[in-house]
Design brief:
The protein is built from 7 helices and no strands. By secondary structure, the protein is an all-alpha fold. It comes from Azospirillum lipoferum (strain 4B).
Length: 223
């Protein structure tokens, strides 16, 4: 009975991980930063549900605490900070600020996911046997965030790229070390909050000074 419950839990984990890829594309391709903040909150809620399912499958009490902390920080606090800071900022000259068109972005995400599946299939850790699809997604999420930072012209979208990378790293840790102390989760959450606050303040200051969110315009420093 317990074995069947565990397997069902892992199936839920792998299924929810697929939604993380969809939500990451929504974050990066949304038309304005305020919508990106909403989609990031949605992705973080999916991540919380994944933590709960993983906690049930592994019997990890620590992951239940992770879920609660992530709900407060990633689903509520961080998106609220970004939404409040970014909703007044828009740069019609660059639109969404994407270098690659939507279709190419989706293809790129698919290629990254396939490559990460190949890498995850080579992992021989016993703890990773049942959650290799979710592990592949966590790696792909990291690289999608990295690609967002590199390929986006919009400064604020680059902030969301960092957030996607952080979610991917967070998921990888939860999958491979579900019994890690709650202190680790608090450290991750605190780091994300302070990083977002600093980057949101810098983005707002840049827009107020230069009236643009185009990273290509930041080519010189004035003393």
């Amino acid at each position: 009975m317990r074995e069947g419950t565990v397997m069902n839990g892992f199936l839920i984990v792998n299924g929810l991980s697929g939604l993380l890829i969809v939500s990451s594309l929504l974050v990066t391709l949304a038309g304005n930063p305020a919508n990106s903040a909403r989609f990031y909150a949605l992705q973080s809620f999916i991540l919380v549900m994944l933590f709960v399912a993983l906690a049930g499958a592994t019997g990890s009490g620590e992951l239940y605490l992770w879920s609660f902390t992530a709900l407060l920080t990633k689903v509520i606090l961080v998106p609220a900070i970004m939404y409040r800071a970014f909703r007044r900022l828009s740069d019609p000259a660059i639109g969404t600020g994407a270098v690659m068109p939507t279709a190419l972005s989706i293809v790129g995400a698919a290629v990254a996911l396939i490559l990460c599946f190949v890498v995850a299939s080579k992992v021989t850790l016993p703890a990773a046997d049942a959650i290799k699809p979710a592990l592949a997604v966590s790696l792909a999420l990291f690289f999608i965030g990295l690609a967002c930072i590199v390929a986006q012209r919009n400064i604020l979208k680059q902030v969301f790229g960092y957030c996607l990378m952080e979610n991917g790293s967070h998921l990888t840790l939860a999958l491979l070390a579900p019994n890690a102390p709650e202190l680790v989760e608090i450290g991750i959450a605190t780091d994300a909050i302070f990083a977002v606050v600093v980057m949101a303040a810098l983005g707002s200051r840049i827009f107020d000074t230069l009236h643009t969110l185009d990273a290509r315009q930041l080519t010189s420093l004035k003393g």
